[in-house]
Amino acid sequence: MLPVVRNNNPLVPTTAGRPANRLSSLIERFFNDDIFTPLTTPAWTSLPLSMWEDDQNVHVEVDAPGLTEKDIDVSVHQGELLIQGERKEERKEGGWDTRSFGRFEQRMTLPAPVDAEKVEARLANGVLSITFPKSEEAKPRKIALKTE
Predict the structure, then answer these.
(1) DSSP states of 11-72 as a string?
(2) How far is Cα 130 from Cα 142, in angstroms, rounded to an integer?
(3) What is the pTM of this model?
(4) Do β-strands 102-109 and 127-133 pair in parallel, antiparallel, or remain unpaired?
C-alpha cells in the first residue's frame, strides 16, 4: 500500500513528493532491502536517545546496554554533540544472538548554547546521562516592566 499525503491535491499517492506507480515502488523497495547492504557497513550505526531542555540545562540520555566507559567517547564542539564508540562482538558456540555489534556514531546539534567546561556525563545501568549547563546568554531572563 502506498502512503497517502494530503496536500494541494488531496489523496494523491506520492513517493518523495511526486506521483508513484506500483512498479517503481516495488523496485525501490527491492534495491533498498538489507540484502544489498555492503558487508562492511556496521550493524549498529546509532543509539536510541532522548533529549530535552529546561531553563538551566540541556539533558541527553542514551541507551547503551552492555557498554562501559572505555567503549564510548563523548565530545561537544561548537554546539554539536558527538557520541562515538564500539560494541565488540562476543561469539559463543552453540547458540544465536540478535544483539547489534560494531562501531556507532551519533551527531546532533544542541538546541541551545551550552557551557562546555561544565558538562557532566555518567554511565549507569546501561544508560549514558549527559547534562549540559546552558550558557548565560541562553538562559531565560525576566524583563522588568516600567510604568508611566
Answers:
(1) TEEEETTEE--HHHHHHHHHHTSGGGS-TTS-S-----EEEEE-SSEEEEEEE-TT--TTTE
(2) 27
(3) 0.61
(4) unpaired
The percentage of the chain sitting over the pLDDT mark of 70, rounded to a whole number, equals 69
Rg (CA), the chain: 22
All CATH 2.60.40.790 domain ranges of the chain, comma separated, are 49-89+101-138
Query: How far does Cα 119 stand from its chain's mean position?
Result: 19
**CB atoms inside a 10 Å sphere around CB 7:** 9
Q: What is the dihedral of CA 132, 138, 142, 146, to 10 degrees?
A: 170
- Residue 45's CB: how many other CB atoms inside 10 A? 12
**Phi, psi for residue 90 in degrees, rounded to 5:** -120, 95
83 and 74 Cβ atoms separated by less than 8 Å: yes
81-124 residue pLDDT tens: 999 988 887 777 777 777 778 888 889 999 989 998 899 999 99
Which of 2.50.20.10, 3.40.50.150, 2.60.40.790, 2.40.30.30 would CATH assign to domain 49-89+101-138? 2.60.40.790
